[in-house]
């Protein structure tokens, strides 16, 4: 029998929830629960009596991993993916190791350093930083978590020997692919080792459970990854008694958490030649990441910022490692305000006060866009995500998505298409060019989730054509629950005025009655616009009583629907 006292709810079966648990409510005195309590506290760096929160998604991920299942962990940036896969690694026998494959050496360095400060045996191994006077077998002995890159894992003979020995001796407990979206986004382009991981895993380590962790992925991508690794998808946690232990590693339980980050404001604006100056004016001295499509664009954009007096740096894979690390440290310490980078920058960067994420050119997929804007506002304070869009960038992106790569160097037909498909790029173009509807709703729908578009105008510049975005931008400040500088409900006055002027111009140009012109445009602002036109409310009070309107919207919009 297990006796429980109020202390930590995360240790018991949990009801379905999309939010962190309200507090530490239960302490359970079974051996497993005591061990789990100790591990959580060690990883969270808390003393014995401190309260803490563990989300249901984290708790489920730990439970599925300790039962031997493969796990797909789709949690937003800052939601604790590391805790979810590090905890099972510390619950296993002391002679077992969890291998973590990560895309960036700097990211691994930070995570390993944090673990070692907490007294956890963890190590990072890669080609350019290991002590070659000590054998890899000696170096990895007794390590609970081993971090490495896909290239070192697949190409270093000593590492491959250690892996096979660990698997044969049942010491390899689990393989974790952190930032798993890189398999699809980079595997067919500049890091083919990522795609080769799937063949390597299924050929040599098919019996070892796998955890895939990412902050941004669509249902289609989850299915593609499951197929690559020959895993059966389960979207609900299975009953422990119904699945044989020997087959659990081949079943991947999908654990997803989607939260509406209301502190993030999304805007899409037409890109102009004065982009650098406009961005500089907008961001001021706030911490900013500017994402660029290519290394050259990152360098040119950084130079443009420096020329106008900004403290800017550049970061991309073509720079020497020491230079990248120097720039990254400068930005982390606040010596650089703006960092111009390619898509890799920011993964795992533990800086919560990023106020602006700017896409200087179009991202190649909505998954990449969502991943990158997630690096802003992690402290919960208002942040802005600005995407600059142009036809020229769209053509460049289209060329990139149709490039083909000769993986074996023979030119004999071993070609694969780029990780981001033309279809994914078309989704981004539609997101940028949409003249009606809610961009945030479209973004959520891409990942298979519903978003109430009646709230959209707090978080994106919906209903504002790209041509108007520059003028509209000056009317808008960040919205957040703590900073209600936008009207409580609805979009900015600048956007409404712009729409109304377009109505008048269209009415005159097409010689349409104002009612017809209005029905063509103004109903795009509100989901209930057509209903308003049909009902013809005669007062603000009557309009306020209609579905989805309320007093604030009625006061703002009533006069726009009057025809006398």
TrEMBL record:
One of its GO terms (molecular function) is four-way junction helicase activity. It catalyses: ATP + H2O = ADP + phosphate + H(+); Couples ATP hydrolysis with the unwinding of duplex DNA by translocating in the 3'-5' direction. Keywords: ATP-binding, DNA-binding, Helicase, Hydrolase, Isomerase, Nucleotide-binding, Nucleus. Residues 274-429 form the Helicase C-terminal domain. InterPro entries: DEAD/DEAH_box_helicase_dom, DNA_helicase_ATP-dep_RecQ, Helicase_ATP-bd, Helicase_C-like, P-loop_NTPase, RecQ_Zn-bd. One of its GO terms (biological process) is double-strand break repair via homologous recombination. Residues 62-235 form the Helicase ATP-binding domain. It is an enzyme of class 5 (isomerase). It is found in: Nucleus. PROSITE patterns: HELICASE_ATP_BIND_1, HELICASE_CTER. GO terms for cellular component: chromosome; cytoplasm; nucleus. Its main location: nucleus. CDD domains: DEXHc_RecQ. Its EC number is 5.6.2.4. It holds the Pfam family DEAD. PANTHER family: DNA HELICASE RECQ FAMILY MEMBER, RECQ-LIKE DNA HELICASE BLM. Belongs to the helicase family. RecQ subfamily. NCBIfam families: recQ_fam. This is ATP-dependent DNA helicase.
């Amino acid at each position: 029998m297990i006796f429980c006292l109020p202390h930590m709810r995360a240790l018991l079966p949990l009801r379905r929830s999309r939010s962190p648990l309200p507090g530490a409510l239960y302490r359970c005195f079974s051996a497993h629960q005591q061990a789990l309590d100790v591990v959580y506290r060690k990883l969270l760096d808390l003393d014995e009596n401190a309260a803490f929160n563990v989300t249901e998604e984290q708790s489920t991920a730990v439970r599925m991993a300790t039962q031997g299942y493969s796990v797909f962990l789709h949690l937003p940036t800052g939601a604790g993916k590391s805790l979810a896969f590090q905890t099972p690694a510390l619950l296993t026998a002391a002679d077992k190791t969890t291998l973590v494959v990560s895309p960036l050496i700097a990211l691994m360095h930070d995570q390993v350093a944090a673990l070692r400060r907490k007294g956890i045996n963890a190590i990072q191994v890669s080609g350019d930083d290991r002590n070659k006077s000590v054998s890899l077998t000696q170096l990895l002995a007794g390590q609970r978590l081993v971090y490495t890159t896909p290239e070192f894992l697949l190409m270093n003979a000593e590492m491959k020997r250690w892996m096979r020995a660990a698997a044969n001796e049942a010491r390899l407990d689990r393989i974790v692919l952190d930032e798993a979206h890189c398999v699809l986004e980079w595997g067919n382009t500049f890091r083919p080792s990522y795609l080769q991981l799937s063949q390597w895993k299924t050929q040599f380590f098919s019996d070892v459970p796998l955890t895939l962790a990412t902050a941004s992925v669509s249902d289609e991508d989850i299915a593609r990854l499951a197929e690559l690794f020959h895993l059966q998808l389960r979207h609900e946690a299975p009953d422990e008694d119904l699945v044989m232990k020997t087959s659990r590693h081949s079943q991947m339980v999908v654990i997803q958490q989607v939260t509406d980050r209301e502190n993030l404001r999304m805007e899409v604006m037409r890109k102009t030649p004065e982009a650098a100056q406009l961005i500089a004016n907008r961001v001021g001295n706030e911490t900013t990441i500017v994402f660029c499509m290519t290394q050259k664009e990152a360098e040119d954009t950084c130079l443009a910022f420096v020329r106008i007096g900004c403290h800017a740096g550049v970061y991309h894979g073509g720079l020497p490692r020491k230079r990248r690390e120097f720039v990254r440290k400068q930005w982390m310490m606040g010596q650089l305000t703006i960092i111009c980078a390619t898509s890799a920058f920011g993964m795992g960067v533990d800086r919560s006060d990023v106020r602006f994420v700017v896409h200087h050119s179009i991202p190649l997929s909505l998954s990449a866009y969502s991943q990158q804007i997630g690096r802003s506002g992690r402290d919960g304070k208002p942040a802005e995500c600005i995407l600059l869009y142009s036809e020229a960038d769209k053509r460049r992106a289209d060329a990139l998505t149709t490039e083909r790569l000769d993986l074996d160097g023979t030119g004999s037909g071993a070609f694969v298409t780029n990780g981001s498909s033309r279809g994914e790029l078309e989704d981004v173009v539609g997101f940028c060019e949409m003249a009606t509807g809610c961009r945030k709703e479209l973004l959520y729908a891409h990942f298979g989730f519903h978003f109430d578009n009646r709230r959209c105008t707090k978080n994106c510049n919906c209903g504002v054509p790209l041509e108007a975005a520059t003028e509209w931008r000056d009317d808008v400040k960040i919205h957040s629950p703590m900073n209600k500088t936008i009207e409580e409900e609805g979009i900015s006055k600048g956007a409404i005025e712009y729409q109304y002027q377009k109505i008048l111009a269209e009415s005159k140009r097409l010689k349409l009655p104002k009612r017809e012109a209005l029905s063509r445009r103004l109903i795009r602002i509100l989901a209930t616009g057509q209903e308003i036109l049909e009902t013809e409310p005669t007062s603000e009070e009557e309009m306020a009583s209609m579905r989805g309107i309320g007093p604030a919207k009625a006061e703002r919009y009533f006069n726009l629907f009057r025809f006398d």
